[in-house]
Amino acid sequence: MSGSLALLSDAGHMAADVVTLGAALVATRIATRPDTTGRRTFGSYRAEVFASGLAVLLMLAVSVYIAVEAVGRIGAAPEIASGTMLVVGAIGLVVNVVALLLLRGGAAESLNVRGAYLEVVADTVGSLGVVAAALLVRSTGSAWWDTAVALAIAVFVAVRAVGLGREVVAVLGQHAPSGIEPTELLGALEEVPGVTEVHDLHVWTLTSGMDVATVHVVTTDPGAGPEVLEAASRMLRDRFHVAHATLQVETTDRSRCQGADW
């Protein structure tokens, strides 16, 4: 009705957030559901990662659509109903400000609430852009401001999508978790009393807040296995916050473990 591309881009951004937050909620329910097949040995925790992948696709789709529409308006002079644009943008701004006030208290206590809070902050920025574009269009009579703000929102959404996409690829690619340097973890294991060698170290993220690892540790004392296992597991949990670690303790008086052949 308004003919505003900025308003449409903000609506697309917020719609993508609604869909992705809903998908995240469904994924959370799926992740906590017990496995009845016996085949999902890691559970369904990665449902959250797939929901994040959906968010990336939706955000990129919104950005591409707005960019294509903006290019199509080059050289044209579309009719912009700045009054409608201003009213709808202001309503969106009020809703987002109320949501910010509701979420602000819990944002410092919960990572999930903080994530929702940051989403609303991004939506608030978009609504502010729409209001600013409406005022500029009304005062100057130029529709260029609407297109410029729409492109700014599209770029903003695309940057967020790329950042989230990199995190999704890192998890699905089983890269080392963010904040954990494998060489540092390897050195810490070698410093555990009784450990003489460490090999076949693998560390990755199963889902957000759940890092796992497997590793082989070697000791010279055949009777020190339980103590080495307990000390190494405690160190991984306390120092690196690895939620689950599978450690294989080996002794030097037996044939050397060849480990994985890949």
Structure description:
By secondary structure, the protein is α+β, with helices and mostly antiparallel strands. It has two domains: 5-172, no CATH class; 182-251, Cation efflux protein, cytoplasmic domain (Alpha-Beta Plaits, 2-Layer Sandwich), CATH 3.30.70. 62% of the residues lie in helices and 13% in strands. The chain has seven helices and three strands. It has helices at 5-31, 47-72, 82-107, 111-140, 144-172, 182-190, 225-240, and strands spanning 195-207, 210-219, 242-251. It has a three-stranded mixed sheet. The radius of gyration is 26 Å and the shape is elongated.
Label this structure with key terms:
three-stranded mixed β-sheet; 262 residues; single chain; Alpha-Beta Plaits; alpha+beta; 2 domains
Major sheet summary line: 3 strands, mixed
Number of helices: 7
Strand content: 5-15%
In total, the number of domains comes to 2
Q: Going across the biggest sheet, name each strand in turn.
A: 1-2-3
Distance between the ends: 60 Å
Give, in order, the helices and strands: HHHHHHEEHE
Average pLDDT: 87
Shape verdict: elongated
Q: Determine the fraction of residues in helical runs and give it as a percent range.
A: 55-70%
Structural class: alpha+beta
Quantity of strands, as a count: 3
Uncertain ranges: none
- The radius of gyration over CA amounts to 26 Å
Q: How would you sum up this structure in a few lines?
A:
The protein is an alpha+beta fold and 262 residues long. It has helices at 5-31, 47-72, 82-107, 111-140, 144-172, 182-190, 225-240; strands at residues 195-207, 210-219, 242-251. It has two domains: 5-172, no CATH class; 182-251, 2-Layer Sandwich (Alpha-Beta Plaits).
